[in-house]
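Kindly draft a polypeptide, keeping tokens residue-aligned:

***
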Amino acid sequence: EDETSPESSPGHMVVSARHLNAQTLGDRLKARNPASKNVAVSYKDRTVVMMGGHAIDEAYWWRPSGFVSFDGLPLVPAAVAANRAANAAITKGAPAMAVPAWCAALGRSIDASGTSVGEGRFALERGKALGFTASPRIDAAVANLAIALVDEQGLGHDDVPDVLSVGLSATDIIGHTMGPGGQEMCIQMAELDKTIGTLLAQLDRRRLDYVVVLTADHGGFDVVERQRQQAYPRAVRGDPSLTVGELAKAITTTTGISAPSGPLLYGDGMFGDRYISRLLSPADRAKVSDALVARLKAHPQVAAVFTSRELAATPLPSGSPQDWSLRDRARASFDPQRSGDVVVLLERAVMPIPAGTRGYVATHGSPWDYDRRVPILFWRRGLAGFEQPAPIETVDIAPTLAALLRLDTTDGDFDGRCLDLDGGEGNTCDAPR
């Protein structure tokens, strides 16, 4: 959100790249040659901005009424047509999706501490936009818009490289609303495979030379009620006393300190960054911090607690993240201008949702492997395929593509390293410039 815009409000958030510190691949391409096109489309606005960057030629994300773009930019015909098709589908409705044979065994009801999941099939009630967005249908709509933008913007049709960023968000939405381990997610995986297949087939029909990178921004942990049925009895829901509201009450009782106005503590969910009110005096903020750290460290569901001062004094970790300590992992995500005054990490298998509610039964964001590890796949016609022998990181994607695109870079331009994508004698990191 560009909160400096007078047009931005809770009811109309003005989206921009103002707070994006990094340059994206598309930014670098356009800096080299403004004729390069940088196009991004997704269900989520932040996905569009974080993948596309500061210099996006066409950017589209979903709002309740359809795809929108940056304030002041008119919708191109492809986006207008996509909205017409999406709204027609919502108005008409659709029957439940078929359950693939390999998903049938997952179709059983699970009481996720307040809401039932596990047997959903994504029937679309007439006029219900939520049934469209919280389903595989939104991915198909995003991919169809991406294909239309390829044609309308002429992507890949000349010798100037372009970037098309496509965010397929239904997996995340379905994971939150129904859990990532049930029949609903199985249907989503089958439909996502079709959607990606359609996208690539359409690029092939246009005889384009393209490179594919497929990855995700996080993993996920299934609803604990299903985990306990599947040989993981330690899976539990988080203690409500770890929410910021309950923590603030307890600390005020202990210290006698409360904020002059507004909350004493700010934070999202039951883990991660905790911010102490800036309206307190430095001395009171220090007392609140000490009390918060002590209370969190004493809780059996808390794995580690770090203050911003501790993390700022910790060297940035190196080597493979699979070998990092919890402090290392917290440090790698720490930004002194943005991170919380206190960072809390929960124990493995603790779901930071006290009870499931409609639309929110599972989440992610922990330092554990089930949330941290994601697939990363590169493909280009003619390259000899192989599996990378050592763990790689998402920050390796940009320098790898920069080498393929023969972008001039220097040491320190990227956090990651270039990966050789050719399983044969060639080395894509040593491409002639």
User: Anything to note?
Assistant: Residues 243 and 270 are 5 Å apart (CA to CA). The radius of gyration is 23 Å.
